[in-house]
Amino acid sequence: MTSTPDPLHFPPRFAWGVATASYQIEGAPAEDGKGPSIWDTFSHTPGQVRGGDTGDVACDHYHRLEADLDLIQSLGVNAYRFSVAWPRLQPAGRGPVNQQGLDFYSRMVDGLLTRGITPWLTLYHWDLPQALQDQGGWPSRDTALAFGEYAALVAGALGDRVKHFITVNEPWVAAFLGHAVGIHAPGHTDLAESYAAAHHLLVGHGLAVQAVRAHAPGAQVGITLNLYEGYPATDTPEDRAATRRQDGFQNRWYLDPVFGRGYPQDIVELLGDASPQAQGLVLPGDVELMGVPTDFLGVNMYSRSVVEDAPGEGFLHSRAIQPQGSEYTGFGWEVAPQSLTDLMLRLQREYDPPAIYITENGATYPDTVNEDGTVQDADRTRYFQTHLGALEDAITQGAKVRGYFAWSLMDNFEWAEGYDKRFGLVYVDFGTQARTLKQSGRWYRDFLARTRKAVGA
Ligand code: FCB
Predict the structure, then answer these.
(1) Ligand 1 binding pocket mutation candidate from 170, 181, 387, 409 (most atoms within 8 A of CB)
(2) Would residue 372 count as lying in a domain?
(3) Which residues 6+ apart lie within 8 Å of 204 measured at CB?
(4) Average pLDDT in the 420-429 region?
(5) Is the CB of 82 under 6 A from ligand 1?
(6) Residue 278 Cα, ligand 1 centroid: separation in angstroms?
(7) What percentage of the chain exceeds 90 in pLDDT?
(8) What are the residues facing 426 on neighbouring strands?
């Protein structure tokens, strides 16, 4: 595997970007008519987020938009992925647009375009309007219908300038961590409910694709899934079968319906009463709706999963292990760049998406600011180098990867971990809001400058 990626091996017009999400950076939770989201509620519930942190201020991005746009531009990226906070646009989740909320995103889009940066807009990155949660949230089909209406509203208002839309970010996380494990908003712990939520997130995705097609003609639209390539802990039939089950739970449960195949039968059977079928939630036409053709597949990739057979454990009878001798990030996630190559080639082989975009990839490490004010994050820099090298390998072997977004532009509110886990190319001092480009950010900037030079742009 190449450890220093060669700019020339990436296709022309490759999207080189950085990514963020509304609740993680914006702050201003009740300004200009914004309604509360489930993450406002959850982070304000004692004991839910490490250290009692909330997104009330976060990176104060709502008030620092212009300066942050300059920061993004200084990296030399040609694309920026952000998400729209649904309750800024529809404070109660439905109804007419809140103009002040829309103005913020409109200014952002104009500011990006002026700077020569292509906006990539995520419609849902987990900050559901609390009012919709109060009416049942994602486990209720009505939320999917409301999401379709919201998508139509955003596409209609911004689709003259935004040409790339991502419907839902990581339905697995929103459904499973939010409704079965309970460590994300809304903090429920019910397996059946989590599969009801997952089903409606996918139905909502289908409705949003249709809405974007109708209201932003010519725009590209897709979904972002968090995928982990699986490897058996030992080469036994038991561990191989366990790896297949884990893959069904984590990957195929979302890939199969999005590519029009409906749900994987092996997992439907393992779920039993908790499956959306057994709950009577899969209505006629849903398979087609979830599988409505898209323009690209967005992939968030951080690590791989190594799996062993574990009879009696959960409904999957399997367990993910942390192999000894591997390198781990500050989250305890294994650093596994080769799995990115394997994942891309496997997606191309088994699902043949028209295009793949890495919509997130990155690592958290405990950063420190040196006396001279620099942040020397050698581990993170190496993480980006090796993963881009792995991506380059996948591209040279035929994967149709068309873009890459580093997670994240800057340190931010890392959900259940609060401000404890830093993922940024830019260091944020949350006391002063000072931003400092880390070594990894310099490396990315210099790599992009070499890339532009190589392609003569
Ligand atoms: C992903 C999320 C993103 C960020 C990274 C570290 O699951 O989409 O918001 O928290 O993990």
Answers:
(1) 170
(2) yes
(3) 124, 138, 143, 144, 147, 148, 167, 168
(4) 98
(5) no
(6) 31
(7) 97
(8) 410, 437
Taking the model in full, what pTM does it have?
Answer: 0.98
pLDDT of residue 455: 78
CATH number of the domain enclosing 187: 3.20.20.80
Q: How long a stretch of residues is the chain?
A: 457
Q: Is 411 in the pocket of ligand 1 (CB under 6 A)?
A: no
Per-residue pLDDT of 361-387, as tens digits, reads 999 999 999 999 999 999 999 999 999
Strand partners, 79: 17, 118
Residue 4 confidence (pLDDT): 79
| Centre of ligand 1 from the C-alpha of residue 311, in Å | 30
The answer to whether the CB of 170 is under 6 A from ligand 1 is yes
Q: 5 pLDDT exceeds 50?
A: yes
Whether the CB of 21 sits within 6 Å of ligand 1: yes
- For 60, 104, 356, the CA distances from 57, given in Å and listed in that order, are 5, 16, 34
Element (H, E) at 186: none
Beta bridge partners of 307: 232, 320
Alpha helices in 19-169 (DSSP H): 22-25, 38-43, 65-74, 86-89, 99-114, 130-134, 141-158
Residue 226 beta carbon below 6 angstroms from any ligand 1 atom: yes
Residues paired with 320 in a beta bridge: 307
pLDDT tens-digit readout, 266-323? 999 999 999 999 999 999 999 999 999 999 999 999 999 999 999 999 999 999 999 9
Mean pLDDT of 58-85: 99
Residue 2: inside a domain: no
Q: What is the pLDDT of residues 129-169, one digit of tens each?
A: 999 999 999 999 999 999 999 999 999 999 999 999 999 99
Catalytic: 360?
Answer: yes
Residue with tokens 């893959």: 247
Relative orientation angle of helices 65-74 and 99-114, to the nearest 10 degrees: 30
**Could you list the residue range(s) of the whole structural domain that residue 388 is in?**
7-227+286-302+333-455
Mutating to test ligand 1, I would choose from 20, 83, 407, 421 the residue with most ligand atoms within 8 A of its C-beta, which is 407
State how many domains the chain has: 1
Instruction: Give the Cα separation of 244 and 436 in Å (integer).
Output: 43
Cα R_g (the chain), whole angstroms: 21
Cα three-residue angle 46-174-293, rounded to 5 degrees: 165
> Quick check: is 235 in a domain?
no
pLDDT at 3: 60
Domain assignment present for 233: no
What angle in degrees, to the nearest 10, is found between the helix axes of 141-158 and 99-114?
A: 50
The answer to whether residue 1 scores a pLDDT higher than 60 is no
Three-state DSSP class for 256?
A: helix
